What does this fold into?
Amino acid sequence: MEEEVLLKMPRCSFCKKNYEFPLGLTLVLNDGNILYFCSSKCRKNQLKLKRDNKKVNWIRKDSTIEQEAAESKDSKK
Ligand SMILES: [Zn+2]
It folds into this structure.
């Protein structure tokens, strides 16, 4: 059951966001590890810029936007 969910909704290895499977990219490394990226932006940050995903502030912005969207839905009721 859990594997099915993971296949449909991979979680970005960089920003930890879940995304729909047709989107984003999946990268299989030579050592057998699989990295999922929701966008080329995340891939570049992880692989080229070697950024620490805890220190990248646009990830926090993304989660803030989601929170605000959820809150505005609640307030419309
Ligand atoms: Zn991402």
Summary: The pocket of zinc ion is lined by residues 12, 14-15, 17, 37-39, 42 (CB under 6 Å). DSSP finds three helices and two strands in the chain. The radius of gyration is 15 Å. The longest helix spans residues 57-76.
